[in-house]
Design a protein that fits this description.
heterodimer; A: 468 residues; alpha+beta; 4-stranded antiparallel beta sheet; 14 helices; elongated; B: OB fold (Dihydrolipoamide Acetyltransferase, E2P); Ribosomal Protein S8, Chain: A, domain 1; 6-stranded antiparallel beta sheet; 4-stranded mixed beta sheet; 16 strands; Exosome_RNA_bind1/RRP40/RRP4 (chain B); RNA binding (chain B); Ribosomal RNA-processing protein 40 (chain B); RNA-binding (chain B)
């Protein structure tokens, strides 16, 4: 008992009086304005669906996981969403391990209501087999540090985690279409959730009797406040939920004013969350590219067209590279002395092949890159559609207009290659020629490749891109 | 590590030390009294470190270990800021951010008798001195100095209290005056009470002064003295 007494956080009479006096002059103890949020930082972990949000001193981590379960009887074709909160004792001396306290349950409920009632997450897309199997999405929120205003912070953590969460792709199969296979993330790219809008919670604290309202109360302001209200809304101005549990009575005009303020703040916060999620997604797709630095980005480039998310079908890429390498090493011996041959060989293969060649060399040596700048570059904004088209051209699909351009570039590249060959016997140079020389054989391989694995074709949508 | 010739201060002064390090060997010194501060313990002839931190020495003969934490370990003769939790028949129960609640005898005031026991309500902030502090027992406090005079001890009215680390409190109490306090002192008038247990009380005429000074103090922990002055100047410009 005494230990608990010693460890509790206490507020002095001086602090109470001071906070109220300062607020009468419109000052808050940390120097903010009445309707200012503290500094918001959103970080993500390495896994999809894990976020850490800092709002001033308050720190909350969110994790989203999913599992296949049986749906509820009254909603056989909808997935389920559940929110769990954990108030870690390290966050505040008053948090005890074990049973969640009243405020913990309230926090979980407010966030759950904001997401569920407003239908922010599309539940029907989580159905796999109606009546039998659906995805159950579980959000875990861990409170790490209580600096005040846990509801808002936890809500942002939940939204950020949901926005970056990817669930495994699954397909139906078997004789009667009843067998469900869940694909591991390396086999098939996991899918994000369908989120219609982001319901943002905005908390107001009502202090002293002069009906002073402040936004985003700190721990000390919370200890002094007379009542609080949380409004959950989205950028469209829809009110998803309002929570006012006990505390001082507040006139209607004040409530309306709060809702108006909350609408502007919700837009701010939504844009911040979206920015952070975008940055995470870009970084994630970059990570995927970097994982396989072997020269097969051109193969992937062809497939990027179908895949919106810039996440490459690496397995296919790997196969390709595996097959290509031995050919190149073979050709090395053939081509080395043959400039005129490389000339004719390189003639009509188009930019795509040169890109491949360029990329091969890129793998070996940055200095001798000859292909287009953007398609393989992980730091570029996107794929140049012209280059895409030309890569497809190289595989046999005729694109006459492009070919002329390609030939021109060809000539330039070949002349460069020529000059490089006599000057040095470096590997990179030979690599360039090799790839150019090796291309007719590669082309044959490309066609075979296109026919080979069934699922590749399925993934694409149109079979034509492989030039088969 | 343990070699000390007679009369010379320990070679570990101003060095980081860890529990178990031997700082001095008393038998090698000439017969002089040595004062041990926090974090040091006498083990027969050896003085050993019990708390990790930096070893400090002040002439003529005081040694102690300094470390900065958010919790406080009570030590005798420290001046701290306590919050009254409860009042019993003989003592006030006071929280000083330590592992155990401290007792403040109701008579430990200047001219204190059974007739004029002060009334402290829960949450009163008081400036007190630690009289007894042994590990495992509740520390004892007093609102008088060694000679029995008030000397500024007692309840603090109004103002604002902030919690910080013990290292920052020591920095604020160091002499020469800490740069942040000095710079603000030139332009603004305010009063400050610093407790070695990581609590600081600030009071001034206008709330804005109090807010500016308290936030500046909190931020100054990680800044060097020039940085502190720059920060103080910037904040002062904003206020005026």
């Amino acid at each position: 008992m005494e230990q608990r007494l010693a460890n509790a956080w206490r507020m002095t009479v001086n602090e109470k009086k001071f906070i109220e006096t300062a607020l009468l002059s419109g000052l808050r103890i940390d120097g903010r304005n009445l309707y200012d949020y503290r500094k918001l930082t959103i970080n993500f972990g390495r896994e999809d669906g894990s976020s850490e949000v800092l709002l001033g001193q308050t720190r909350v981590m969110g994790f989203v996981t999913s599992q296949l379960v049986q749906p509820y009887r009254d909603r056989p074709n909808e997935g389920t969403l559940s929110v769990f909160t954990e108030f870690s004792p390290m966050a505040d001396p008053s948090f005890e391990p074990g049973r969640p306290s009243e405020s913990a349950v309230e926090l979980g409920r407010v966030i759950d209501r904001g997401l569920r009632e407003s239908r922010a997450v599309d539940m029907e897309s989580l159905c796999v087999l109606a009546g039998r199997l659906v995805w159950a999405v579980r959000i875990d929120l861990h409170i790490l540090d209580n600096g005040g205003n846990l509801v808002d912070t936890a809500n942002i953590a939940a939204l950020a985690a949901l926005s970056t969460f990817r669930r495994p792709d699954c397909s139906l199969g078997g004789e009667d279409g009843q067998e469900v296979t869940v694909h591991p993330p390396d086999a098939r790219e996991p899918l994000p959730l369908t989120i219609h809008h982001l319901p943002v919670a905005v908390t107001f604290a009502f202090l002293s009797s002069e009906s002073i309202v402040v936004l985003d109360p700190t721990h000390q302001e919370e200890a002094v406040m007379g009542g609080r209200m949380t409004a959950t809304l989205n950028t469209n101005g829809d009110i998803c939920a309002i929570q006012k549990a006990g505390g001082e009575g507040v006139p209607q005009s004040v409530v309306m004013q709060c809702l108006r303020i909350a609408a502007t703040k919700a837009t701010d916060i939504t844009s911040k969350i979206k920015e952070a999620v975008e940055a995470y997604n870009t970084e994630r797709s970059l990570r995927k590219i970097k994982r396989h630095p072997v020269p097969n980005v051109s193969a992937d480039v062809g497939r990027v067209k179908e895949n919106k998310n810039l996440s490459f079908n690496l397995k296919d890429g790997d196969e390709f590279s595996g097959n290509q390498m031995p050919k190149i090493s073979q050709l090395k011996l053939e081509i080395r002395g043959n400039d005129p041959q490389s000339d004719s060989v390189g003639g009509n293969t188009g930019i795509g092949s040169n890109m491949k060649g360029g990329i091969t060399s890129k793998g070996g040596n940055t200095g001798n890159f000859l292909g287009g700048p953007s398609s393989w570059d992980p730091y570029s904004k996107g794929i140049d559609p012209n280059l895409l088209r030309s890569s497809l051209a190289s595989r046999g699909v005729s694109v006459p207009s492009k070919k002329l351009e390609d030939l021109k570039r060809e000539k330039h590249i070949i002349s460069e290659a020529k000059t490089e060959v006599p000057s040095s016997d470096n590997k990179p140079t030979s690599l360039i020629i090799n790839s150019e020389g090796g291309l007719p054989t590669n082309r044959k391989k490309t066609l075979k490749d296109a026919v080979k694995p069934k699922h590749k074709r399925k993934k694409r949508g149109s079979a034509s891109t492989n030039g088969s | 590590m343990g070699d000390k010739s007679s009369g010379m201060p320990s070679t570990l002064v101003d060095q980081p030390v860890v529990p178990g390090d031997v700082v001095l060997d008393v038998s090698t010194l000439t017969n002089r009294a040595i004062k041990l501060g926090g974090g040091l313990r006498q083990d027969a002839d050896l003085i050993r470190v019990t708390k990790g931190g930096r070893l400090r020495f002040s002439k003529p003969n005081k040694y102690w270990v300094e470390s900065s934490q958010m919790r406080y370990v009570p030590f005798v003769e420290d001046t701290v800021l306590g919050i009254v939790i409860d009042s019993k028949a003989d003592n006030f129960l006071v929280d000083i951010k330590g592992p155990a609640i401290a007792f403040l005898p109701v008579l430990a005031f200047e001219g204190g008798t059974r007739r004029n026991i002060p009334k402290f309500e829960e949450g009163t902030l008081i400036y007190v001195r630690v009289v007894k502090a042994n590990p495992g027992t509740n520390p004892e406090l007093s609102c008088t100095d060694a000679s029995g005079k008030a000397a500024g001890f007692g309840p603090l009215k109004d103002g604002f209290m902030l919690e910080c680390s013990t290292g920052l409190s020591r920095m604020l109490l160091s002499s020469p005056t800490s740069p942040v306090l000095e710079e603000f002192g030139k332009k603004l008038s305010f009063e400050v009470a610093v407790g070695l247990n990581g609590r600081v009380w600030v009071n001034a005429e206008s709330p804005s002064t109090v807010i500016v000074v308290s936030n500046a103090i909190l931020k100054s922990e990680s800044l060097s003295s020039t940085q502190q002055r720059i920060m103080a100047h910037k904040l002062l410009e904003k206020v005026h």
